[in-house]
Amino acid sequence: MIESILDLPVEKQIFYAVLVFSWTVYLWEAYLSYRQRRIYRSTSHVPQELGKIIDSTTFEKSRLYQLDKSNFSFWSGLYSESEGTLILLCGGIPFLWGVAGTVTTRFGFGSDYEITQSLVFLTLATLFSAFTGLPWSLYNTFVIEEKHGFNQQTLGFFLRDAVKKFVVTQCILLPVTSLLLYIIKIGGDYFFIYAWLFTLAVSLILVTIYADYIAPLFDKFTLLPEGELKTDIEAMAQSISFPLTKVYVVEGSKRSSHSNAYFYGFFKNKRIVLFDTLLEDYSPLNKAGEPPAEQPECDETSGEAKAKPKNKKQGCNNPEILAVLGHELGHWKLGHTVKNMIISQMNSFLCFFLFAVLIGRKELFVAFGFNESQPTLIGLMIIFQFIFSPYNELLSFCLTVLSRRFEFQADAFAQRMGKASELYSALIKLNKDNLGFPVADWLFSMWHYSHPPLLERLRALGNVKQD
Asked: Distance (Å, rounded) from C-alpha 295 to C-alpha 358?
């Protein structure tokens, strides 16, 4: 069998090696998910060591939620893998490239306008991806998330949001791609250096403008009102020399009841963003005292999110929010953000260098159906997505391990700030609010979890007494 494969032309060997590796990764992921689903099915009662931190009702809700998500992930993953395989086997990539060429020719652009054809190809490919992924996204939002009480969107809001995301993505993706292709074309022998510097500049610009100009297109951002919480946040930031300029609250509750917090910005211009669902005193989901009749109804085509009364208290109190932010600021103080950026850029430079080495290999293009031409965009797709896939899997696992290490260090930083007890209770609350299942298969968590499991984090914080 192996000898017969080795007797094939090199382009066929490349093609089948890509398919085999892709399915190997999928089967490995499916096996890990099966192990975790077995945990979901078999762990129907709260383990003794969790008895004091999670009640049986929440435990059962989280178990069923994660089981539904895991089953959905299996079927959506199988579809995605099958779709990708069929596209490769049926020559979908060269076919779509030909369609893009036909479109550009009709508008008076010949074969010399490769960048124009590349942009049409990219638009068609993202349209195809958006349409094939839409049913899965609808099911996830309006069946799974709805069933378990997280979805806050109407169908009209969801669809308008999806269209807006597509348009904004194209407005960024197409100009950046055209400039990158142009740099590669004119860059000479050292184009990989210029391409890397360009992508570095783009990433820095996007990080800078995202929260100020892009995110507000989708969510409402307001300054945190003056009060005790804002004063305490500013005092904590000052105590560790964090150059905080603004604290925002984002209206995440209009689309989901999941909660989050993050900071962004460069140098002396840092901002903190808190989801309203994280704040016990601000979350609209806690305003359940009003009778349902007093809350306006929205039809499925309206653009407004629908308010859903909750029977439980959502979010964290002020001391717990400060503890969560102490953890997040720990990432900054300990240099985790800078380290991640350095790793990312080193990886980007290495990939562009290897791309420069491989782009001239005609057999790579022939393997995927490009016998006559070697378009630069197709070369980027083949090399970055297919040829680098073993390296990408290894890098992803290493970054997951590093991320868990950083999370423990950030927890320890908050603990040194005297916020161990508050962080302990905040982690428990956030786990309950987001229906995180606190029991994990060791192999599944090792491969997938960028954050340590809840019990491991609580143990690391020490045996803190809770009410």
From this structure: 61
pLDDT of residue 238: 92
pTM for the full model? Answer: 0.85
Identify each DSSP E strand in 101-235 by its residue range: 221-223
Buried b (16+ CB within 10 A) or exposed e, 346-357: eebbebbebbbe
Neighbours of 85 (CB within 10 A): 14
Confirm whether 411 is a catalytic residue.
yes
Question: Cα 291 to the chain's mean position, in Å?
Answer: 37
* pLDDT tens sequence across 223-255: 888 989 999 999 999 999 999 988 989 888 888
DSSP letter string, 110-135: -TT-HHHHHHHHHHHHHHHHHHHHHH
Q: Which of 411, 422, 433, 456 is catalytic?
A: 411
What number of other Cβ atoms are within 10 A of residue 138's Cβ? 14
CA 316 to chain centroid, in Å, comes to 24
Per DSSP, 452 falls in state -
Residue numbers in the known binding site for Zn(2+) are 327, 331, 407
Closest CA to 253 of 327, 149, 155: 149
- Return the bridge partners of 222, or none: 249
Quote the tokens at residue 437: 């299942």
